[in-house]
Specification:
The structure is a homodimer. Chain A is an all-alpha fold. Chain A is built from 19 helices and no strands. In chain A, about 85% of the residues lie in helices and about 0% in strands. The two termini of chain A are about 40 Å apart.
């Protein structure tokens, strides 16, 4: 049964790849005629490739070291008894990085050819331009989820061991750490440096080709928002599957009902299938509304998914409770997305109030944004809480002998459900930076006001959709790490029973080791975010210096008769991003390991809980406050509260600048930080069990 | 034994009152000659009294309602069996509000006479001016801690029931909610409105008497920083004693060692005694350094306390482990204070970096402050974690049969230890606003540059010391609420054993009810802070309108020939503060009660844990970031990075304005929110045990 379903998964993944290939060639066939756009588009593509190569080169060095450590340590320390299992683990880890890297590479390739083509298609109207942007994004969506389903099925098919999937997941997380966090630093470095020197010092427009940082800025959109976002959701998706598989595999063996693993694979594969159908049905009228088109394809996918999984449940005889938990997770995800959207939507009162507060000066823009950002955490926190509670209660009754295992399985399946339509989410998310770039290229290629207006409309739809998907993906990551907590406990007990130690049945909040861990764990996301933001700042300073150097030493640059050295700027952003991400990632990982060796398993459990709680809170706060400031600025620029150039506009720009690293660097990186830490804790549980100072 | 120690406590409290009375009359005897200072000082005093009267009037209405609810519900619902105990509880609650109100009233009275006298004393040099400020603050310190020790001893002496002390503590928290939160809104409303209309619109200096908001601004310093801070620390101190007493009383009865309650009272009384000695020994040379004088008196108090409690431990035969936990708590508190200071000290790199970042514009001031604010949470979080862990481990070995009870007792005694020198802390803290006001009065009374320089120096010392004591008091509140978690469990089990329900032995983080509670609880401090900040903003807008009205309708006001209507501004700030605090407090309380009735005892335990973790994190972040911005602005004003009037200065002012409600409204109010919620949870535990939806 498992094999059947796995093969089904692999077939659907291949289908997704085929569809992605078709979409890719379709996008490539679209006309690209404008000289400037072709040239600038080529530079962006080159820059993005350069960054990716540098990133992957460094990553594979790190990955090799980690793979060797895994081979020495997992599942049992090599000095105790070396087994072929250890090699499997290391191979799975490497596979995780490779599959995710492949998806990121595909996404970048298509995004950097779709942007120019979308700009030029806008000459023929909104519909063709939208289709290029959307199909470009869909290539990424199909590649990410296809690679995820394909990889997880393959690893499980070959090694038949859920721990191998955990290692695969850690591989994906390592890549996400580089792609999402590194990409986040890159994009904001370039953005801030370009703004500071261009708009502020020289008074030239945002996308002026005289600015040496302009290509780096456009590259940043692609490496941060396309490759980084893809790696992040690949990571969450794999982690949710890994968490579910660890528990399901144990239940298959012990509980007498052996279709749990099959359920996980089947539902994941159907999620991908539903996303393919959702992408295929996405349509926009000649004068249609792009936001509506994007959102309705999400709802269509959700509906298809619920029906397909219900059918599968009947056909294969899966548990209805698990189905319910899965669909509940998805519904709660959609609801969280919609409520979070309220706080960043430019037609709702938070954005209006923030824009209005800007009249009184930038301090009030900030205070208002921070306040609404704080408020916006409530729906997602409560929603995540409710889906945890309800999916647990739904599933604990499945089998009284294994009530807590089934309950945890229910939570993990709620996470799988929330992430099931991730193919659709990634498609919509990748659409954003493509049309954003298209807008810039339309300006640089001087395609005329009408075209720019169309690309503007598409861009604004991208921003709105992004807000929905961001709330969604943070909550999904939250639910995933809650499921990973269950995995951690399950791993600890596997290790304990092998070692003949007493089983761990609970982590009591009144246990001082747990409490100690919680306090430390809660501080880490704050420290991690702070290090990233300070890193962006340092890196931007380096780049500003380089831009000044170019303007001072290249004659004719200011007049537009000479070309700037774009590559130096890309180089600085890229190498700086890598330099700044290592210490931040290091602090998160080392504090986990230290806490584990000091306080053992209870301290680590507490650490994970504290980390999840404060991480979720800060990620939601920073992402939403950032989105709100961005839209408040756009709202003012659209002519409200005094419009462009007014004092309110200046204040709103300050808010937007603060919001940029909040929403594009620190906020979304916290997801990755939490996942990495959770996986490391699960994988090292044996060591923490045996070697801790306090036990 | 208990009675002896209680009487000792009462005697020391009376001693503290006597000393406070002597200090008060000493301050009052200091000369006050300058006409303007006398007039303005009188107006400030009147305004502060008006606010206090309004606040207390509203508070007592609320308190009456709560007292009636307590009488109906506690310890057993009146409809089940009405007992005289219920009346005791209600009376204790009312006593808690009254004692705290008394201390606040005394503090305000002395602060509003010491400010002018400190200004005039500066004509004779730094030493006499410092002594007036310090002794004025010490009156508050003695009054707060005296009232606390006196009240707790008295309530326990009369009713002999630790639950009555919990009710007393809830009374203190209710008052703190009004005084600290309401005062926080008041002070920032006035500050922001005065700045916006005065400095920004009219271009008149900060303390110009033509500004209708200027008196409200000065009143704000007193009601927020003196009365509010006093109520906050009164609240924490009583809560720590209540938490310790609940556990100690149970141990006295069950464990066979009956000196635990006596230990609590004895150590608390000796803390007060050490503070008296510390205040008495505070000295400053003729050209001495006021910061050093303030800090060294804190260290002296710490030393005296450690010695006195050690002696008492020998004499009365207390447990050394408990002594060690208590002294450890105090030491960790001092260390946390010092490390936190690093992030706000204007001679250290965070403040310098933030000031330097201001060159690039206000967005970078904000980003840098947020980053360092996040980083600054680490030492306090880890320190609190270590003191929890070590005090638990120290004390769990006292008696193997009662290991977890003694361990919890150890944690609560670490909190008592951390708060033992609170008399000294309050003295130093109250010194700040007195000399801050003195500075303003010296300017308004035109006492000359030399005098203003002296008051400036004293003011700056006040700010530095405030940073230390703030980190200290947030951590102490954190440790107290951890101890209250133990109290909650103990209360739940008392109720469970009475009702014949199974005892609760742990709160498992893997229990979905606990997890649900944690997620909701973690969101509440963010929502609470947001509501307060939005409230300040709304209230400031109202006041700005009033100021505009006065300038438009009072002829001669702008020219300085007519007086503004100061009272209207005070009135608006006061009534607005009360209006804005009710919904914020309501959300915190109602969400606690809802969570309890939905998820029962496990959900509430989770709620408290989530609340503590995110509350501590946000309180530290906001207080420290606010302090850092304040000092970065002062650093620039001292001539660095371009000095006053430069672009960097403008940016630093934006940071300071954002920081004001962070550090003076939201940040410190979170303490109170956590304590209130913890006490309500403990007191309602029986109801949650019997009436919850999920059990």
């Amino acid at each position: 049964m498992v094999t059947t379903v796995e093969i089904m998964g692999i077939v659907i993944a291949l289908l997704a790849f085929a569809y992605a290939a078709w979409l890719y060639s379709w996008v490539k066939q679209q006309p690209q005629e404008n000289q400037t756009i072709t040239r600038i588009g080529g530079l962006i593509q080159e820059g993005a490739r350069a960054f990716l190569n540098r990133q992957y080169a460094l990553l594979f060095k790190c990955a090799l070291v980690i793979a060797i450590i895994i081979m020495l340590l997992l599942p049992t320390p090599a000095w105790q008894s070396f087994s072929i299992q250890n090699v499997f683990m290391a191979v799975s880890y490497i596979a995780g990085t490779l599959f995710s890297a492949f998806a990121g590479k595909v996404g970048i390739e298509v995004a950097t050819i779709a942007n120019g083509r979308s700009a030029e298609a806008a000459k023929k109207g909104i519909k063709p331009s939208f289709m290029v942007g959307f199909r470009g994004g869909a290539v990424m969506g199909m590649a990410v989820v296809g690679a995820c389903v394909f990889g997880v099925c393959l690893v499980y098919l070959i090694f038949g061991d859920p721990q191998a999937v955990l290692c695969f997941s850690l591989g994906a997380s390592s890549l996400a750490l580089f792609a999402k966090v590194g990409g986040g630093i890159f994009t904001k470095t370039a953005d801030i440096a370009a703004d500071l020197t261009g708009k502020v010092e020289l008074g030239i427009p945002e996308d002026d080709p005289r600015n040496p940082a302009v290509i780096a800025d456009n590259v940043g959109d692609n490496v941060g928002d396309v490759a980084g976002m893809g790696a992040d959701l690949f990571d969450s998706n794999v982690a949710s599957l890994a968490a579910a598989l660890v528990i399901a595999a144990k239940l298959d063996v012990t509980s007498g009902f052996n279709k749990n693993v099959a359920t996980v694979f089947c539902y994941a594969a159907l999620g991908l299938f539903a996303s393919i159908l959702g992408v295929m049905t996405a349509r926009i009228g000649k004068h249609g509304n792009p936001t509506k088109a994007l959102n309705s394809s999400t709802y269509v996918t959700t509906g298809i998914y619920a029906v397909l999984t219900a059918l599968a449940t009947v056909v294969f005889g899966f548990r209805w409770e698990i189905w319910a938990a899965c669909v509940l997770g998805l519904l709660v995800g959609v609801i969280i997305g919609i409520t979070t959207d309220y706080f960043t939507d430019d037609s709702k009162s938070p954005v209006h109030n923030c824009a209005h507060a800007s009249h009184t000066g930038p301090a009030f823009t900030i205070l208002s944004g921070v306040s609404y950002g704080f408020l916006s955490t409530l729906p997602a926190m409560v929603g995540t809480g409710i889906s945890t509670l309800v999916s647990y209660k739904l599933c604990e009754g499945i089998d009284p002998t294994f009530s807590s295992e089934y309950a945890l399985f229910g939570i993990s399946m709620a996470a799988v459900g929330m992430l099931s339509i991730v193919g659709m989410i990634v498609s919509n998310d990748a659409y954003g930076p493509i049309v954003d770039n298209a807008r810039g290229l339309a300006e640089m290629g001087e395609l005329g006001d009408e075209v720019i207006d169309i690309t503007d409309e598409l861009d604004s739809a991208g921003n709105t959709v992004k807000a929905v998907t961001k709330g969604f993906s943070i909550s999904a990551a939250g639910l995933t790490v809650i499921a990973l907590l269950g995995t951690f406990m399950s791993e600890v007990n596997s290790a304990a029973s092998e070692l003949g130690l007493p089983l761990v049945t609970e982590f009591d909040v009144m246990d001082p080791l747990v409490f100690f861990g919680m306090l430390v764990g809660a501080a880490i996301p704050a420290v991690f975010s702070a290090m990233l933001m300070l890193g962006v700042d340092r890196n931007a300073q380096r780049m500003v210096e380089e831009i000044h150097r170019q303007f001072n030493t290249i004659p004719g640059l200011k007049e537009g008769t000479a070309d700037p050295d774009y590559n130096r700027c890309i180089d600085i952003a890229a190498s700086g991003a890598m330099k700044e991400l290592i210490p931040a990632g290091g602090v998160a990982i080392i504090s986990t390991i230290l806490t584990g060796f000091i306080g053992g398993v209870p301290a680590i459990a507490g650490f994970l809980v504290g980390n999840i709680l404060s991480g979720l809170l800060l990620a939601l706060f920073m992402s939403n406050a950032g989105g709100l400031w961005d839209n408040a600025k756009k709202y003012v620029e659209a002519g409200h509260e005094g419009g462009k150039g007014s004092e309110a506009h200046k204040a709103a720009v300050v808010g937007d600048t603060v919001g940029d690293p909040f929403k594009d660097t620190a906020g979304p990186s916290i997801n990755t930080q939490i996942t990495v830490v959770s996986l490391i804790a699960s994988l090292l549980s044996t060591l923490f069990l045996t070697l801790a100072l306090f036990r």
